[in-house]
Amino acid sequence: MRLILIRIAIILVANLGLVMHANAHQTKQVPCMVDIIYGDDDIGVVSSFVLKLQHKNQTGRKINGVSVLIRNAEGDIIRNSDAYCTSSSDGIDVGDTGQCEKTLQTITGKMMQSVGYNVWIKLIEDQKTDLQRADSCEVIGVKFS
Q1: Domain locations in the chain?
Q2: pLDDT tens digits in sequence order for the chain, 145 residues long
Q3: What is the DSSP secondary-structure string of the chain?
Q4: I want to staple 92 with a disulfide (CB 3.0 to 4.6 A). Which of 34, 37, 98, 120 is the partner?
């Protein structure tokens, strides 16, 4: 009977270790930010709000994307998103760290033309205030190559 209990205990501990290892990459919280990139289109100025974060690949396969919960400075979830880790390379190799990013919002020159300059500026300021609350990102999943 004692031998059976020892075997059950070993099996439970081994399975718990596998579950914890399988989800280890999914609970990493890293600093992130939303950058505003200005450019031009055929009609006027384009404002793009781009989520950026650095991610270390601790899995056994190349990663080309992550799924994140975006948190403010207080730790509250303010949004979720995916981010691509292929903007400057073909993904993040095993053991490497790389940048992941995603354009969350784009406000185009065509929009400025249709709503007017003052409303367009207010849209940009509202999005800037909302999106730049991002302080950290919790990586909850990865996309393998």
Answers
A1: 26-144
A2: 666 555 555 665 555 444 444 444 445 899 999 999 999 988 888 999 999 999 999 999 999 999 999 999 999 999 999 999 998 889 999 999 999 999 999 999 888 889 998 999 999 999 999 999 999 999 999 999 8
A3: -HHHHHHHHHHHHHHHHHHHHHTGGGGEEEEEEEEEEEEE-SSSEEEEEEEEEEEE--SSS-EEEEEEEEE-TTS-EEEEEEEES-SSSS-B-TT-EEEEEEEEEEE-HHHHHHH-HHHHHHHHHHHHHHHTT--EEEEEEEEE-
A4: 98
